[in-house]
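In the laboratory, one determines a bound structure by crystallizing the protein with its ligand and collecting diffraction data. In a computational setting the workflow is compressed into a single prediction: the sequence and the ligand go in, and a structural description comes out. We illustrate the idea with glutamine.
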Amino acid sequence: IEHIFKHLKNTKGGKNADYIPELKKVNPNSYAISVFTINGESYNVGMFDKEFALESASKVFSLALALKTKGVAKVKQMIGTEQTSTVFNSVAAIEESANHTLNSFENGGAMATTSIAYDKNKAKFEKKIFDNMSKFAGRHLTYSRPVYKSEYSNSDHNRAIAYLLKSYKRFYGDVEDTLDVYTRQCSALVTSKDVAIMAATLANGGVNPKTGERVIDAKFIPYILSHMVTNGLYESSETWLTNVGLPAKSGVGGVLLIVVPGVMGIGIISPPLDEHGNSVKGIKTAEAMSKMLNLGIFNRRQPCKM
Ligand code: GLN
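The predicted complex, in structure-token form:
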């Protein structure tokens, strides 16, 4: 990863998310790569101690929480697994889809997934979401007030989507409270090291390799990982699979959370995004790592090199 880091450090292209003004302010040259193996080995390069907003990568963990409380069949029925070829906050896709919620990673389905954990007591609702993410990270996670405020004051698009889903009876908690807690979950602050540990917990069948704690039953992992395979990078998921070949989830803060099942978790952060909302340099980094370590599941002719 040091070699790849040096090689790609000066890669240009993409731009920070600007629909959340606070994310626009983040230094676009920030760059970090972390690996955490299921044996607890940790490798890090770049700004791996700097915190960034988790954004959509948080959706993986609200899905995990929903699965823990409802099980696979019920979550599938309440949300769905429909793939789309539109942008992650497309209203048209919700309108045109028969199930409307699409999947747990498009913004609408993601908010509906968070709403499954709804509690009338908003503090309890928020705590449930953060306790769960913290267990995956193996440390207490908090959120960035400035990112939260910035995103919340620009959340009318998400609010409209949430009310639309409510009108279809595809939302499972109070819209305003859920939008608020969802925005906080997206503003959760993580380092690339945290992201790698969160991914490694999924790679390790649900046991956090840092703390040894079982965070989720192993029986839910295939649903989460297959969701990441089909929808993790939205409409670029297929290209990602061809070039990297691993379950992953992106976020508009520039995070890429990648799972190498049975081997390790990878966390890459670089804020400038492509037109689909995925980190440009993050994708290049993942492609290089996949190639160098023979990680991609679709072109692996021999065991990967870890
Ligand atoms: N919080 C962002 C939103 O709701 C997350 C989007 C993303 O990271 N793709 O729009």
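The beta strands are 32-37, 42-46, 52-53, 189-190, 248-250, 255-260, 264-269. Keep in mind that any predicted model is a hypothesis to be tested, not a measurement.
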